[in-house]
Amino acid sequence: MDADAFVAKWYAEKEQLLAAAWAPGTESAARIAAMALSPAQAQQLRDMLDVFATDAMYTLLLGLDGSAALGGDQRHYTVLDEDGSVIAEEGDLEAAAYAWFHDDRSSR
To answer: How far apart are CA 99 and CA 94, in angstroms?
Structure first.
């Protein structure tokens, strides 16, 4: 697995989390229903949660890469797969994260 494939999995996880927020029978769906939002308000909530999840995951990926601080500490972390192979060199996660979360690689 390389940096692009690793980040693609994070992007897919973000999409699954957002979909799960409205999945019937979930705690989040029950709380959203309890808000009694209009369709326009529900769309605004979806959009806001998408921005929030994007920002959170993007920041975490950049934190692993050493391009952003995590908890006030900025350093590069080596991300390995289960075989001990390096997934990304310094800068690789930042580039892949930008492509997936801000440059719309998912639609290509």
So the answer is: 9
Kindly give, in sequence order, each residue whose CB lies less than 8 Å from that of residue 102, ignoring residues fewer than 6 positions away.
54, 58
- pTM of the predicted model, to two decimals? 0.86
| Model confidence pLDDT, tens digit, residues 48-82 | 999 999 999 999 999 999 999 989 999 999 999 99
Q: Tell me the C-alpha distance between 75 and 106, whole Å.
A: 28
Q: How many CB atoms lie within 10 A of CB 14?
A: 20
- Give CA–CA dist 40/61, Å, rounded: 32
Query: How many CA atoms, within 13 angstroms, populate the side-chain half-sphere of residue 49?
Result: 17
- What is the enclosing helix (H) or strand (E) of 58? helix 39-65
Of 93, 68, 76, nearest to 11 by C-alpha is: 93
Question: Rounded mean pLDDT of 85-96?
Answer: 92
